Structure formats: structure tokens, C-alpha cells
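User: Please look over both lines:
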Amino acid sequence: MLIPHDTRIALDTVVDLMNTAPRGDRDDGLGDVQALQSFVHAHKISDVGTLGPDDLRAVLEVRERFTAVFSAPDARIAATLINQLVAEAGTTPQLTDHDGYDWHVHYFAPGASVADHLAADCGMALAVIVVAGEQERLRRCEAPDCGRAFVDLSRNRSRRYCDSRTCGNRLHVAAYRARRKEAAG
């Protein structure tokens, strides 16, 4: 699947945003405004201004709505969720070429809040996946103790773990050890 760089960046951002959610013994990665500011800086989210508690609450709501898109049972439900999210963000598509990137489309209105920025750009990136008939690429890690979100961009849609070097390798090693233990008997 060929994905333009701006769509790929937005997909990475939505996955990283979702993976800030508390899970098991993992604390919320967006527990305060400073954490949100760090997220915005790390993802080079432009033109968001000074962030406050209202921005944090709004971004946490957007994060939950993205989570609902990833767990939508079919494309029709995912499309409805994305349409609502993008419409409420007040999308205003604009061509831009900033920060050394070639021409690409921003979907958020100038001066939009960080939550609307994320809802619009990331929502449209998810829309690209749904339009392409590739919703099954929006996944959760199959490692029992993980569950992190990821977008499977492998050629044959076979990726099962958020990171094959950690979750995937850990489960393969555990399975190997179990087989050896059983064989030794």
C-alpha cells in the first residue's frame, strides 16, 4: 500500500497518541499538560500555541475516539466515527510545504486547537485506510500483556505484534522454551 509521507506521519501520530493511554500497569502517557506539550514537540505538531488543561481534556477525548475507530467491527462504523470526528474538528484542507517537506495537505484550520489538529489530520489519515479497504490494518498487538495499537503496513498484512523485536521475539522465545520443556518431558 502506497501511503504519502504526510499520511504516514499522521498514522504514526495517531498510533503514538493511542499508545499513551494507560494499560495494565502502564500510567497515562498524557497525565498532565507538560506531557501533552512533550507529545506535541516530539511529533512536531505545528501552530498549536500555549497548551492548557482544556487542551489536555480535549486531546484525551480525541484519543478515546481514535481507539473506537481501531476497534470498529466494520468499515461502515469506522467511517461514521471518522466522519463525526473530522466534521467536529472543522476541517479546512490546505496545501502547505513547511519544515523541509514537499507539498502536502493539512486538514486543520489555521489556529485550530491541538485536539482539532489531531482529529482532522489523523482522522483523514485513518479515512485513507478505510477508503482503501484496508481497515484490518488498524490493529492491536497480539502479545497478551501488551495491546498497543499499530498500523500493519506489511505487504501481506501479517504483522501481529507492535514490535517484532520486543513483543514478537519475547513470545517466540517463550513458545520455543515451552516446546523444549515439553520435549524434555
